[in-house]
Amino acid sequence: MRTIPATRRDVLTGATALGAATLLRLETAQATPASLEAAIRDVVGEAPLKEGRVKLAIPPLVENGNTVPLDVEVDSLMTAADHVRTIHVFNEKNPQPNVISVKLGPRAGRARFTTRFRLADTQTVVAVAELSDGTFHTARANVIVTIAACVEELG
Length: 155
Hints:
Helices cover about 20% and strands about 40% of the residues. The chain has two helices and nine strands. The strands form two sheets. Strands 1, 3, 5, 6, 8 and 9 form a six-stranded mixed β-sheet that branches. A three-stranded antiparallel β-sheet has the order 2-4-7, with no helix packed on it.
């Protein structure tokens, strides 16, 4: 049997791959209540969060976390002087605390969106709306999930 000698490129590629595999340890990301609050603070900074103006419609009890309906609406005139700039949705226990950010403007007509998303477990979901005057309004909802989603292991 004849062997082919390894080139310098083969050795360097193998060493790099081995080194990277040794240094990197893949772990499942897990959001926590602290990471939820940190993600919100990344968006709002030190600005106060005001309750009201945001309506977060999500079922309080979800049988299957793989497809959870979510509806967020913000009370706004949607004029050039008074409109919603962005609506952010955060969660407490999914692999990442940021769910979605929707950018709007006065021409949107209505500050509302509907979607479906996954929930890993029973947790709190938070919507934060940034208005054109620089204020932030929020709403929270607790959701009980009987069959969790987002629990796939990295293979």
